[in-house]
Structure formats: C-alpha cells, structure tokens
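pinning this so it doesn't scroll away 📌
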Amino acid sequence: MKTKQHHFVGGIWKDLPSELNAAESQLVLVFGSSQVIVKPEIYDHLRSVYPTADIVFASTAGEILDEMVYDDSAVVTAIQFEKTTTRCVKTNIKHHANSFDTGVFLMDKLAAEGLSCVFIISDGTFINGSELVSGLNQHNKYNVPVTGGLAGDAARFEKTFTGINEVPSQGNVIAIGFYGDSIKVGHGSVGGWDEFGQERTITKSNKNILFEIDGDNALDLYKKYLGDYVNELPGSALLFPLSIRVNGDEKNLVRTILSIDEEQKSMTFAGNLPEGSKVRLMKANFDKIIEASSKAAESAFEDINNSKPDLALLVSCVGRKLILQERTDEEIEAAKEILGGNATITGFYSYGEISPFNESVKCELHNQTMTITTFTEV
C-alpha cells in the first residue's frame, strides 16, 4: 500500500512527498470544512490528479493530518493498494424510508465474496446514526468489521456535506468496501470520561429524544447536576454526556446532547436512548480523554497482530475537540506515538463515530470517543 497526502489551506495546495502512482490510485479520501470542500474547483483539481480513483468527501468539525488538527482546510489522502480491491456505494437518505433501510441498502450492495471490512462516511444532520448502524448490522452477511463516522460542521450543527466523485452535498451516505485476504484491519474506540452519580433508568423517550429518567423530568434532573453550567446550556452539555447501557449489555455507550427544548422539557441526543436503558451522568477528565486516544490506538494495533499499520483513519468527536480546545493536538499525538512514524494518519472530528466494541464485530454508534481504524496490506 502506498499513500500520498495533500493539504489545501489558505487557498493553496501543499503536496507531501510520496512514491504513489496517481494513475493507479483506487481511493482518495477528502476531509475538510463545509465551506471548503463544496467548492467545485476542489473536486475538479483532484479529479485531474487522480483520474480513475473513487474520490470520497466528508465535511468535518476539524480535519486531521499526521499529528495536527486543522480547521477551514481540506486534507486529502490518496491510496494505492497492491493486492486489495475497493468498491464504493452511495445513497441518499431521501431515497429510503428511514436510516435503518439506508444501512441495509448499503450492506446489500457491498455483499460479495472476499469482503474484509466496510468504512462508512455518513451525512451528520439528516441521518439517525443509531438506526443506520442497526441496518448495517442487520445485513452484515460476511460478519466483517464496520467502522467510520458521521460528517461534521464545526460546532454549528447546521449542514454537513458528503459525496463521491462529485461536489459533495447533503443527505448522502457512502460505504467503502475492501476486498481480499491481503488487507488486515484493526479498530479501537475509547472515550475516557468519568461516570458519577447513581445508575438510573430511562422511563420515557422517543428514539433520540429523552423525556424522563426514573419517572422524573430528565431536563430538570440534568440541570440539578450542572450547577453553574446550567446558564451555559446547550453548549455546556458537551461537558456532561450520558453513559448508557442498553438491554442489559455489559458495555456502555456514550451519548452527547445536541439540543434542549425548554417548552417540552426534553433533550435531544446524538443517538437513540431506548426506554428501560440504564444511564449515568459523565464528566470530562482531560488526562483520561487524551489517554483514551492511546488506548484506542493500542486496540487497533493489537487487531493486526501488532504489525505496523500502513494507514490509520482517526474519527474523534466534536465534543472532545470543544472540550480539549488548545490541547486537541495532544490526543492525535498520543495516537501517533502508538501507531508509529510509518503510518499515514488522517481523519476528522465528527458528529458520531462508528465502530465495534473492541472484541466484537457488531458495530455501534459512539459519541465522545476517539475511534481508530488501521489498515495494513500483507
């Protein structure tokens, strides 16, 4: 596997040195700000450089290049596989009844002998991420790992853009299938948040909208724990996500609050919260959040038998970036220390991360995690 990276920043293309043959590159990943990647000249330039590759776009809440995080730019990673083949499928949420059916459609289209893994680039505003991953799991015929993320739009939460082989637009979900025995894939997803308070039960919810916990109004209960942060809602909610355990599962997922409704006394989360689920409040621990990046990298590293990865795709949550602020680069640096200097590193800050729990194949929607997927050709 060979890679080549480009960085479009300040209106100028910066090309990193590489031995990749552009004419033989099969896949190009473009992660950038909403304002940048929708410029037609970005796609036109990349198509001229990579005439036969599938060019996949995702808008971000920050783009990752090596050990740095950037805003208002576009990070491009071209990949030339030696023995692996890829296939990309795109659909739009408006063509399906719901997000679940979207996931089913994508997995059905990729299903074929030799499928080794799937990477998802999804719209981050119109898609229900929990239902999307349920559809992906439902039709994972070959029981392969599925990872990826939901596109971002900085901290605006207004419009996200994704696309393939065209200027990106809204509502698209792209699935990239990797085929063959030569590709080895690792994955890890870790949060690093501290839980506090007693475990409680969700008693009233509607998909990703939460109304009651233990029979009491959830928003009022939440405000009670926020203290002085209550005056900074909804932004301060990123500091206090929920840990959720669904249907008696031993593993806990993390759910981030997207908005609150004072009139309905409800909270909308970036993922479903089924009634009967167990929840606990969480709070930020800066050192543990950064350490979690190392742990995610270690897990992805172990999955490929500690082989040196050729490529690492990092998908971290916008909430982590808003909390870490000037320390954001530290979680990328922590991952790179584990992955090694030979790995090409790219990725983005997202509105949701997709990955199995470390020992499972079934993928989940995560919030507030660092999720890492590693690729190695053998």
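📌 and the second one:
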Amino acid sequence: MTVTNNAVISVALGYVEANPDDVDLIRSLIVLALHGPSIIARDTTPAHVTCRAAIVSPDWRVLEVRDAPSSSWQLPTGHLEVDDASLLGAALGLASRRGGVDPNMVILDGIVPVDVDATIAPAVPVLGEPEHVHYNVTYLFHVEDRDLAVSDARAHAVRWVDPATIPGQLGTRLVRMSREARLVR
C-alpha cells in the first residue's frame, strides 16, 4: 500500500495545527498534493515529499549517519518506497536501513511530525533529475540506550551529536525540546 496524496495532506494538516507559524510552507505542499501527481514519487517535480528520522538518546544526543555519496553527516533521510504505508513508517524504515536502528528499540514521540521543511535538491543530470524541492517530513523517536539502539554499528557509519549541531528549524526545535526535557528531570 503506497502513501497517497490524501494521506500526505492529512499529515500536513495535523502538523500545521500544531505549528501554525509554518502555514505558508504547508499550504504550498497541500496545493501540490491536491493538484499534482503522486507527491511521494521521486520523479515528481517541482517538488516531492521525503522523510527523516530524528532519533534521540536519553541525554538528548541525536543520531546522524554518513551519507555515502556525499560523505556528509545527516539524519537518516530518504525518498519513500512504493510499499511504504505511511510517512511515519517510511521514517522508521529509513532509521533502520540507513542507521541500523532496531525498530523495536525506538519509542515514537508522537504521530505528528516534529518538523517539516523544504530544501532545494540540486539537479542530477546523470539521472535526468532537474533541480527540485524536497519537503522533508521529520518524525522524532527516542531510544533508551545508544548502544542497543544501533543493531550493527560496524555496518553503518553513525555518530551521536549535540542537537545544536543540527541545522535549521529542526535543530532549534530539538535544542528547545532537550532543554524542556532536562527541566522535567
């Protein structure tokens, strides 16, 4: 079962209800989903949806993985697969495939994404891909133990970083959430 445009719209509406300051960004995503082809297909231009997993440890360190093609560090991120049944499931699948995270070792923070942003994806002429926009839908997951969460760290290049090193609005939100979590303790 593939993620439909209506499912993306439903997630977007839930997100904007929790984050009303992001209404302009979400409005453009919803318009594309209402009027275009499958918003999750990687060949849909001018934009399509991708997913990310923000995985945090009890001490609020964030899991990053090394992206093989670019050798850069990032959250487990990627395009959706045809058989992904939900955006949440896609994010969890990426955490498993890209980061080696055991899906049974994570605790979902909530069904509403923690962040949605839009980034420019550069053209890839070899693949016939023009420059386009990725709407990155990020879900937050918690793990109780860093070492147990990553099932085979040797097979995956992973590291745990301070949330302040995560760029953009997502990094700001993770820093704020880590401070709030420390106050509760």
